[in-house]
C-alpha cells in the first residue's frame, strides 16, 4: 500500500502555525503568502486523510493528533537540518550561517565588544542573532530554531555540550549618597531585602543573584519588576532601591551618566558562568568550539 510522505516544506508550515497560532504570522515567518501556507497545510491533511488543525474565525486550535505530529515534525526538521550541517561542517569552519540565541543580560554588553572583530576576522561567517530569555532560547535550540545559545549558567539546558567563555562577577549597585556605602565589598547580610530590585521572572540573572546571597528571605521580599538591567539602573538612580549587576554590564558603561555606584558582592558564588551551548552530538561541534574561542578572545 502506498503511504503519502509529508514534505519538509509542509512540516515547516505546520510547525510555524503551531508556534505563531496565526496563519498570517506563520506565513510571514515562513516567507510565503498566507494562501500558499494554507494550501500547503490543506494538501497535507487531504493526503494524510486526517484533521490536524481546527480552523475558526478567531483562533487556530490543533487536534491531539496535530500536536503529536508537530512534536514529531520538530525532530524530523532538526534531523534534516543536521544532515545539511554535516555536509557544511566538512567545508571551511566558521563559514556560512550560524543562528545564535543570546539572553538579554548578555547581548547588549558582550556583543558590541565582540562583533566588530568577528566580522573583520571571519568575513564569510553570517551570524544571525536572536535575543530571548534563557528558557525560550533553550526551546529554540532543541526545536532547531537556533544552532547555539550564549547564556549564563547554572541553568537547566538539557542534552547539550558547552564551552565556557568567562566568569562574570556580580556587583551590588546603589545610589552614591547611600549612608551604608562600604569601602570595598558588600556581604549578603548588608543587603536590605525591602529595597532590593531584581529582574522579573524569566531572567536567570535573578536566580543567580539570589543564589549567590544564600538568603531565602530575599526571594520572598525582593521586588521583581525590572524588564532590563538598564531599567533597574534608572530605578536605582531615582532612589527606589538597590540592585545587582553583572561585571560585563559595568564594563560596558551601564552606570555612565548616573549617580549609581557598584561594589562587588562578597560571596564564594558571586558570579555566573557565561557559556556557549549547543545540541549534544551536533555535527558542528568543532565549529561551535572555534566560535567559543573567538568569543573568549573578544
From TrEMBL:
InterPro entries: LysR_HTH_N, LysR_subst-bd, WH-like_DNA-bd_sf, WH_DNA-bd_sf. PANTHER family: TRANSCRIPTIONAL DUAL REGULATOR HCAR-RELATED (PTHR30346), TRANSCRIPTIONAL REGULATOR OF OXIDATIVE STRESS OXYR (PTHR30346:SF10). It comes from the Bacteria. Belongs to the LysR transcriptional regulatory family. The lineage of its organism: Bacteria, Pseudomonadati, Pseudomonadota, Alphaproteobacteria, Sphingomonadales. One of its GO terms (molecular function) is DNA binding. Keywords: DNA-binding, Transcription, Transcription regulation. Gene3D superfamilies: Periplasmic binding protein-like II, Winged helix-like DNA-binding domain superfamily/Winged helix DNA-binding domain. The keyword Repeat does not apply. Pfam families: HTH_1, LysR_substrate. GO terms for cellular component: protein-DNA complex. This is Hydrogen peroxide-inducible genes activator. SUPFAM superfamilies: Periplasmic binding protein-like II, Winged helix' DNA-binding domain. The keyword ATP-binding does not apply.
Amino acid at each position: 500500500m502506498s503511504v503519502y510522505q509529508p514534505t519538509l516544506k509542509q512540516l515547516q508550515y505546520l510547525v510555524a502555525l503551531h508556534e505563531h497560532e496565526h496563519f498570517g504570522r506563520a506565513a510571514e515567518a515562513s516567507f510565503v503568502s498566507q494562501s500558499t501556507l494554507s494550501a500547503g497545510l490543506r494538501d497535507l491533511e487531504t493526503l494524510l486523510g486526517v484533521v490536524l488543525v481546527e480552523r475558526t474565525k478567531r483562533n487556530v486550535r490543533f487536534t491531539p493528533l496535530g500536536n503529536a505530529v508537530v512534536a514529531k515534525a520538530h525532530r524530523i526538521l532538526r534531523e534534516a537540518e543536521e544532515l545539511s550541517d554535516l555536509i557544511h561542517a566538512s567545508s571551511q569552519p566558521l563559514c556560512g550561517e550560524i543562528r545564535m540565541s543570546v539572553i538579554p543580560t548578555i547581548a547588549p554588553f558582550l556583543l558590541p565588544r565582540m562583533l566588530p572583530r568577528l566580522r573583520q576576522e571571519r568575513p564569510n561567517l553570517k551570524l544571525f542573532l536572536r535575543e530571548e530569555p534563557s528558557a525560550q532560547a533553550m526551546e529554540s535550540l532543541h526545536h532547531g530554531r537556533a544552532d547555539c545559545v550564549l547564556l549564563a549558567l547554572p541553568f537547566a539546558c538539557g542534552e547539550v555540550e558547552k564551552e565556557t567563555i568567562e566568569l562574570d562577577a556580580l556587583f551590588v549597585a546603589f545610589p552614591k549618597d547611600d549612608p551604608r556605602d562600604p569601602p570595598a565589598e558588600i556581604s549578603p547580610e548588608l543587603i536590605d531585602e525591602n529595597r532590593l530590585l531584581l529582574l522579573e521572572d524569566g531572567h536567570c540573572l535573578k536566580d543567580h543573584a539570589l543564589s549567590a546571597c544564600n538568603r531565602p528571605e530575599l526571594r520572598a521580599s525582593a521586588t521583581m519588576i525590572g524588564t532590563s538591567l538598564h531599567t533597574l539602573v534608572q530605578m536605582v538612580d531615582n532612589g527606589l532601591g538597590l540592585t545587582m549587576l553583572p561585571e560585563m554590564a559595568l564594563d560596558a558603561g551601564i552606570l555612565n551618566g548616573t549617580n549609581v555606584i557598584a561594589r562587588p558582592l562578597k560571596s564564594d558564588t558571586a558570579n555566573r558562568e557565561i557559556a556557549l551551548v549547543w545540541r549534544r552530538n551536533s555535527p558542528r561541534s568543532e565549529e561551535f568550539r572555534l566560535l567559543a574561542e573567538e568569543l573568549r578572545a573578544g
